[in-house]
Amino acid sequence: MRGFGVGFLLAASVYDLLVAHGLHTTVWPTVTVLLVGLAAVLWPAGHRPLWLTPTLRTAAPAVVSALYTAAVLPADRAEAPFGPGEVAVLLSLLFVAVRHCPWPWALVCGVLDAVALLLLPVRHYRSLQGEVLAFALIGLVLVGLTAGLAAYLRSLDYRRTVAVSETRRAERVAIAADLHDFVAHHVTGILVQTQMARMMADRQPQDLDPVLAGIERAATEALASMRRTVGVLRDTGPESADRRPVGDLAAVTDLVDGFASPAQRTVLHRDPAVSDDLPHEVQAAAFRVVQEALTNVRRHAGDATEVAVRLACPGDRLEVTVTDDGRGGTQLPEAAHGGGFGLVGLTERVTALGGELRAGPRGGVEGEAGWQVTAVFPAGK
């Protein structure tokens, strides 16, 4: 398509020169106008100097064309030709001006190109007002169509830019949420186990090693999560999404095992009907539900002695349930309790997949010891 356009411009320009030669007028003004215009249109983008901005490219040829028209207006001057080559060049520059020039230069350069185009008939038909008006009407139609198409494409470019910007922002927010979820889970575990180590230092110093090992493991995992997330933020390639710190149903086992402590027993009940072939986004959301629920147990139910995680697949649904027997006791500092956005974010994630999230007293009975979080997902493959 580009080759056809270049060929048309060159052929039309040659025709302009032949017309000028046939009228027995000097061809140098026509050559100058066409060379300036063709250079502005056809100069390869990769080889343009920095000073050759879209504004200069579209304004200079229009000014040269208008000056040539003004020079032949006096009555004692011979009529000068114009042809399809110069018309095509000015229309091309009008398109470039409206689509690529920064605002408000797009308007200024567009008007210059349009005026230069509409003045062309005056060179040859300045004594024939009817012909001038007819050509001017055709010129107005061409100007309107060209400017309209360029403005439409410019609006598409703007929408595309906004969409890309919003997509990047949403991706960064999602990555930040991933980082928060993972690191908050590990850091909360570090806090709890540190408190336990302090209590055991006086009473059971011989049993400190497993607790300290748990602290070391949680800190290592938190650092690994931060490294992965920062790596994704630095890498804008399409493969970066595969390295986001997300989990799946297989990782739930390690998550539950890593949560256990001398003071809290954790149990995982997985229905054999639960398949590892569920959609990845469903598995990742299920993992997050378990992670956030366990983190909340540490934050708000430090007195819980048993935490049960259940994965079931009734019908065509995946059901994830996390239950504890705590009564709300915790010794964590106030700053470690969180801002209450975890369940809000989980609800948005679950409902986006067509699921449902419920959180409340265990068994649905107020005053009953324990808390239960239940998420239900469509499990269609």
Automatic annotation (TrEMBL):
Looking at the record's lineage, which domain of life comes first? Bacteria
The Swiss-Prot or TrEMBL record annotates one GO molecular function as: protein dimerization activity
The portions of this protein that span the membrane are 26-46, 105-126, 132-153
Q: Which UniProt keywords apply?
A: ATP-binding, Kinase, Membrane, Nucleotide-binding, Phosphoprotein, Transferase, Transmembrane, Transmembrane helix, Two-component regulatory system
Matching SMART domains: HATPase_c
* Example of a GO cellular component annotation carried by this entry: membrane
* Keyword Transferase belongs to the record: yes
Per the UniProt entry, the Enzyme Commission number(s) are 2.7.13.3
Q: Which residues form the Histidine kinase/HSP90-like ATPase domain?
A: 281-381
Q: Does the keyword Transferase apply?
A: yes
User: InterPro entries attached here?
Assistant: HATPase_C_sf, HATPase_dom, Sensor_HK_TwoCompSys, Sig_transdc_His_kin_sub3_dim/P
Recorded catalytic reaction(s): these are: ATP + protein L-histidine = ADP + protein N-phospho-L-histidine
What name does the UniProt record give this protein? histidine kinase
Kindly list the organism's lineage. Bacteria, Bacillati, Actinomycetota, Actinomycetes, Kitasatosporales
